Amino acid sequence: DRVYHSDSLYSAVCGAMLRMGWLEEWLSATATADVPAIRFSSCFPFHANTLYVIPPKHLWPPAAASSKVRWKGATFVPTTVVEALVAGEVPREDGWMIDNECLVPVGVGSGLFRASVRSGAAVDREGSGVATHSAACLEFTPQSGLWFLISFANDAAREAWSERVKAAIRLLADSGFGGE
User: Fold this and answer.
1) Are 45 and 76 in contact (CB under 8 A)?
2) Who has greater pLDDT, 168 or 104?
3) Which of 56, 105, 110, 163 has the most CB atoms around its CB within 10 Å?
4) What is the DSSP string of 73-137?
5) Residue 110 — pLDDT band, cuts 50, 70, 90?
6) What is the pLDDT of residues 29-88, one digit of tens each?
7) CA dihedral defined by 56, 10, 170, 143, rounded to 10 degrees?
């Protein structure tokens, strides 16, 4: 999946909180609280200063657009395009192209990410058995990655958890998250 969903992100942060010794307090503030102190959005791609999202289905693809750009091929569009669509504006087809599921400005280059499959093999100790496996992953281009929103229930929650959540995200950035 090209989107890292909020429940998976929450699970990854729980794992990071466990490693840092804050899991019980974290679960009390989020999972078992009447009102969670922190909420996460899903993760979406970004490139440089451009944030991408899945376009709203009721506005996408643009109705008045011609066939120069295959609008339906865009899984992700810049947030600025969504803002324009909400305002009733239609994107100019000469300024956009679809590159690897993303609507990018003409001339930006080779997309934000590419899907890859990595393969490996486990060999038993005696050397008589081999089990192959593979895993899909996303590889990001320079200046690209994932972004998400964090919502704090109030200022007290922000004060209590902001630095610890940043620490958990830094740990995940170094150690990785997802299936493998």
Assistant:
1) yes
2) 168
3) 105
4) G-SBEEHHHHHHHHTT----GGGEEEETTEEEETT--S-SEEEEEEEEEEE-TTSS-EEEEEEEE
5) low
6) 999 999 999 999 999 999 889 999 999 999 998 876 566 788 888 899 999 999 999 999
7) -20
Q: Which residues contact 127 (CB under 8 A, 6 or more apart)?
A: none
What pLDDT score was predicted for residue 13?
A: 97
pLDDT for 69 equals 82
Backbone angles phi, psi at 99, to 5 degrees: -135, 110
* DSSP H or E stretch at residue 147: strand 144-147
Count Cβ atoms within 10 A of the Cβ of residue 145 and give its class: 0-12 exposed, 13-18 middle, 19 or more buried: middle
pTM assigned to the model = 0.80
C-alpha torsion angle, residues 81, 115, 42, 70 (rounded to 10):
30
As a whole-number percent, the residues of the chain with pLDDT over 90 amount to: 50
Write out the two tokens for 168: 């958990």
Task: Return the H-helix or E-strand segment holding 168.
Answer: helix 155-175
Q: How many residues can be counted in the chain?
A: 180
Residue type, 80: T
The greatest distance separating any two alpha carbons of the chain, rounded to the nearest whole angstrom, comes to: 67
pLDDT at 180: 62
The b/e string for 3-16 (b: 16+ C-beta within 10 A; e otherwise) is ebeeebbbebbbbb
